[in-house]
Specification:
InterPro entries: Dihydropteroate_synth-like_sf, IspG_bac, IspG_bac-typ, IspG_C, IspG_TIM, NO2/SO3_Rdtase_4Fe4S_sf. The chain is an alpha/beta fold. The chain contains twelve helices and 15 strands. A hairpin with a 2-residue loop joins β14 and β15. The chain is elongated. It binds iron/sulfur cluster.
Amino acid sequence: MTLIHRKDTRPLKVGNVMVGGKDQVVIQSMTTTKTHDVEATVKEIERLEEAGCQIVRVACPDERAANAIPEIKKRINIPLVVDIHFNYKLALKAIEGGADKIRINPGNIGKRDKVEAVVNAAKEKGIPMRIGVNAGSLERHILEKYGYPTAEGMVESALHHIKILEDLDFHDIVVSLKASDVKLAIEAYEKAAEVIPYPLHLGITESGTLFAGSIKSAAGMGAILSKGIGSTMRISLSADPVEEVKVAKELLKTFGLASNAATLISCPTCGRIEIDLIKIANEVEEYISTIKAPIKVAVLGCAVNGPGEAREADIGIAGARGEGLLFRHGEIIRKVPEDTMVEELKIEVDKIAEEFIQK
Ligand code: SF4
C-alpha cells in the first residue's frame, strides 16, 4: 500500500536532511547517555546511525552538556538536535556550538529580549526550532480553560508558541504534540494538521518498554500516519534507542513511507512446515536490516502455498523436504540444498538490492 502523504507542509532543513514538504517521514531518536560524556554519546549516535536513524537529539540539561556540543558535532555524520527546556543561555551556547536544530518552547524562555536573542541566533545560523507540546505539561491558563489536557488545548498551546516565533519573523518551525494517551495524541495531531502549516514531529510519549511501547506507538502513530500526517517521528521506548529506530523503520515500511529499507515477509508456520523457519526468519531479518533498498524478501515454511502467497516478494525461499526453493515474484527459479539455502538467499538479496540502488 502506498499512502497519499501530506506534502504541503513548509519544508525546512535540519543539517542536510529535509523535513516536511515531501512524501517522506524522517526517523529520529534520542541518546540515553550523559551528553557531557562525549565518548559514550558519540558511540551511541554511531550505533543509531548504523541502524537507520536520520536525525539525533541530545539532552542539554546543563552547561557541561552545552560545552560538549561542538566536539560531538565534529565527530558524527547525522544532524544534531539539542533539547533545552527553558534556559536561553544554554540555547545560545548550543546554537553557537553547531546544533542543527534546537528543541525549546519559546513561551517558556521568559522575557522577550531572551526569546529574541535565541531566535536571532537561530536565524543567523539558519537552523530550525521545534516546539514540543506535551499533554502532561500544558500552560496553566490552558489547563484552567479546558479543565484537563485536551487536543484543543494542546493545539492552542502550540499556536501560542508558534505566534511568538512568527511575530519575530521566524518560520523554520517543527511542532510536536505528544501525549502518552494514544487517543489524545491522535486527535491532537489531526487537529494540528488542519491549522498548522509547519512539519509535524510525531511521538507517543512514555509509551513503555520495548514490547508494549512498540505496540502502543504503532497503534497511535499508525493511525496518524494513515491519515497522511507527519514529517518526522520518534518512537519513545524504555529500551536501547537503537530499538526505537528499528521500530520506526518497521512502521514506516508498513505504510510504504521508507524508501531505504528492506522488508521481510515470513509465514506464520503450520503443520506443513519443512524447515526451522523461526531461526531462518530471524537470521534473514538481521541480514536485511542494513540493506538500504526497498526490496521484499520472503521466508516460507513450505512450498505448498508459499511462493504463491508471497507473490509480491522480490526474492524468497520456501522449505521443501531436504532442500529449499528459491523464488522470485511467486515463480520458482531454482532448487538449492537445505544447508546452503540461507547463504544462497543472501547472495540473491545482495544482487537485487544492488539492482535497485543502481536504478
Ligand atoms: Fe504453512 Fe507452508 Fe503457509 Fe508456512 S507457507 S503457513 S508452512 S502452508
